[in-house]
Every structure is written in C-alpha cells, then in structure tokens.
Task: structure prediction
Amino acid sequence: MKVMLTIVCAALFSVATQAAGVQGNAETSEIKSRVPAPQPVSSGYYVACHYFPGWGVKKNGYSMFKDVLDFPDRMPLIGCYDEGDPEVADWQVKWAREHGINCFVFCWYRSKANVGKPVTTADLLLAHQLPAFEKAAYGRLIDFAIMWECDNAGGATDAKDLAENLVPFWVENCFRKPNYLKLGNRPVVFVYDNSFKLMKQVGGPEKLRAAFAAASAKARTYGFDGLHFMAENRNRSREQLDKLKAAGYEQTFAYCWHARPGSPTQEEAMKVQLDGNRMHVAYDPAFTILTASQAWDPYPWWRHWYPERVKELSRWKLTPENWRKVLEEIRKMADEMPSDAVGHRLIMLDNWNEWCEGHYIAPHRSGGFKYLQAVREVFTTRDNLPDYRLPHDLGLGPYDKGIDWAAPEVKWDEP
Result:
C-alpha cells in the first residue's frame, strides 16, 4: 500500500512542476497565446473533472450547441464555440487551473465498426479536442486522461483486440504525453461500462481480467509498468462491485449520480450522491474514487431522442451553495479514507461541460464562476488571484465562426 501513497504524490508533483513559471506547452514554448496566462492555485488534493468533447463542428457546419440555444441559462460565458480551436482550449485550461482542477478526463469513443481492428484517428468519434489541447499554448499545464466509452461506442472483442489494437494507439497518442495521468509509471484508463457491455463482449469477469493483464503486459513493452484501470459505477450494489473487482479494476468512480424521476429537491439530490459515495467507501475505501455531481437534466436531448420517455427524467441542478456543501462532505470523506488509498487525495468532479445533458461547472450564464469558486474554496489553499475577464473583455472571440446554425442535424457518432 506504500506504493499507492507514492503514486498519488507523484501525480500531484507532476502538475505542480508543469505549473511552475506558467511557461505554457513545455515542448513548444515558442507558442504565444492571446489568452492571459493561467495562475494555478496550490492544493493538497488532485482534482480531476469529467469533460465531454461534444462541441466540435461537424463537416457540414452543424454543432450540438444548436440544442443549447433554447436553454440560455446553460450558455457558456465563452459563448458557443468550436472545441477544435486551440484558443478555446487555453481558456478552459486557465479557468480549470485557477480553481484547483488538475486533470480533464476526456470521454474517448471508438467507432463500433472499428472493434477488432487496428485503431487510427479516423476511427475515433468526438476526438477534436485532443489536437486542440496539444496545440494550445497552455495545454501542458493540465493533466489529462481518457475515459474509454464502452456503453455507447466500441469496446473490444477480446484480450488481443485490447492489447494489440487499442494499447499501441493509446501509447502513441495519449500515454507518452508528459501530462497524461499516471499512477507511478502506469497510465490510468477510466472505463465507462455502466451496462457491463465490455465485460459481456470479452466473455465475463475472468476474461476481462485476463484482457487487462494482456494490455498491461503490452504497455510494459513500451516502458511503462503496466496500466491502471478504473470502472464507472454509480450504483449501490455490492454484487456489481464484487464483479468489477473480480474483473481486475482497481477503483470505481461515477460519471454522475441519478436522483428520483421528476424534480428532486436539493436535499434529495445531495443525499443520493453522498449516500452512494459512502456506500462505496464502506464496501472498500481502497476501491473508491469519490465523485461529486453538480446537476443532471438531459431534457434538451431527450425531447428529440426519447420524447415518449421525458416523464422518466430526473431533472435537478444544485445551487452553488449546495454544490459547495457536497464538495465539503466529499473532502471530509476523502480525508477520513486510509492515507494509502488513491481516493484519499484523488477527487472526481462531474462535469465540466455537459451542456445538453445538464451537468456543467465551467463558467456559464446562470452560474457564472460560482461553481468553480466553490471548488477553489474547498480544495485549495487559495494562494492565487483568479482572472475573471472574459474573451470579449479583451477583444477576443467569438469562437463560433465555423458553426452553420442552418445546417441539418448530424448524429453525434457521425463526422
């Protein structure tokens, strides 16, 4: 268990080192940004935040922001944007690092048609943010990791597919980056498999464990000490947790927490996620990464995709004050976890920018910077001075120039 403590400290140290001097991209220091340089804040915690990369512009000019226009309270303060723009990435890094967020966990989608085959960039869905952060002046000032989405996109056929097709691609395009999240010398792979589709694909828990072992062995041939797999699970089921542990996952985390259908009260929305986190800690603190959820309301999408099921929706959004209360409880839980547990210092936040699905803490019209300010106040030493100027204050933007608002809708999993 001593290793666990060491690896978390190593992750924290990597971010602190990148932030020193705010030099921007370590490998491309000549890059200059029009965005004011981030002033990162110090913290004894390592805070990771889920990030949905759904805001690029499709080939015909369509943007999913079209579904946000009817909900102006959700509109980001940066305005609608093309996520493939490096300057947009610079703003995201600035706001995250100035408020104590150390890492973005990008949803990573493999085309279902690619399963069982070698992976190329052409086989990815919603991957435009990765080159944008790579080209951004401040891209290396924040760590990143991938959350392999196996519920709505391509999983893997077997151990060979994972080790021989996925791992080489991940190594070349993600793991070798100096700011990829690693615990020790093991890149972290978050896995979204809430319906256990990946486990079923490969043939059950034992075969998935063998596939993870094969993937780790392949990673060692590239100089890593293996891989570290974490599973998404927002359910309170010991049976499910037993199955995930048997499959070789080392921790669980949540992408969101669901309250009852309808309009749960603030107290209900807070209680359901705090109770869920406590149940996971009680099961095994070493197997738990605590997750705080700010909201949930996918009505902008469901009204089109599942109109007959809208009544089943749970629609809620915590006030900034209640969000802060949840964060304070999460911090207390983390502090009480064994000091050698990864979750003692690694915290997950839900979510940076799920504008349509209805959970977002990035600066937006109805909440401003208040949700980020709560993160800074709860998890950091507040030894910086955040810069709250927006792009238009500096004569920058707008960032929606590539969007054609008249373009017909293109499904999320199409180019």
Summary: The chain is about 35% helix and 15% strand. The mean pLDDT is 93.
